[in-house]
Amino acid sequence: MSRINQGNHISIPMPVALVGALVDGRPNFLAVGWVSRVNHQPPMLAVALNKQHHTPKGIIENGTFSVCFPNVAMEQVTDYCGIVSGRKADKGGLFELFYGETGTAPMIAECPLNIECKLVQTVELPSNNLYIGEIVSGYSAERYLTAGKPDFKKLDPLLLTMPDNTYWRLGESVGKAWKDGVTLKNQLEENNAQV
Amino acid sequence: MSRINQGNHISIPMPVALVGALVDGRPNFLAVGWVSRVNHQPPMLAVALNKQHHTPKGIIENGTFSVCFPNVAMEQVTDYCGIVSGRKADKGGLFELFYGETGTAPMIAECPLNIECKLVQTVELPSNNLYIGEIVSGYSAERYLTAGKPDFKKLDPLLLTMPDNTYWRLGESVGKAWKDGVTLKNQLEENNAQV
Question: Is residue A73 less than 8 Å (CB to CB) from chain B?
């Protein structure tokens, strides 16, 4: 099989988020694709932000930040938040805001899922800093839930791929985790027992 | 608007990967959802692995690891790699393997996108360790490319959400990044000019 070297600037389907912080007392948001859960207990996530951005100043100032997940209907305004700097535009004014337990992590009422974090560690990398936050709480409006839990078809999250710079919607469900592999596990164990 | 507190164990749509390493000389793979790009230049990514797993031993031993992205057709074998430990099963034997520049990061021919990394930093967190790797190269077979670049509809990557533990396919494209926000930027600037 031919394998073609794709160089080292590779990205994968990324959940797009608006990372929020109070910068000099003013709510600001930055569109990011580099966000992931990183610790199970206590629950933590990390966001990797270019050092030149405006939002990190607010994360350091307050020791708090938000990670707000827009839906597909918010594609245009989300993209705008990735194009224009908070130094030049009042991005907080684009949304209905609310605050949670920390009181200093601005969250977006229009986003179907909002997470507020306390900063626990900053990892300095060459061009980006990785901000690791302990998750204080997540918030969703009732219309995005089924049986009290986030329903991702209702959330309709926005995904991003690079280098084609394309936004995507979540497609159909194709299976269940920690379950569909059990059939294969049983088959393989049966085969081994017969050898 | 009512907002319902979802506690702090929140996940978002995650690209599922098989993280590979040579453990005591034997290729092993672990299914993970906590993977993200973290640095622009040089390109880096990070994977967050529970400290009890078998694969981290190999990452530390060799200072290299792979991040292999399965497609939807590999859903069952991927889930299996998240259920069974490499201490008990030969997971490397499930795949056709190949190696790249590092020579010690096992990659999976069946995966439409494989990335090999050199370990640059380990961040210790309470229950997980975050392994930050510089991306040496990414590899795709020609059938997954369009005009020489990864085509994510052809790649058909596997996504995971929690706490519903559901695998998903990528849906339809809904827009272009660093482009669709420009219309809104122009409108807002025109409005401001008129005030």
Answer: no
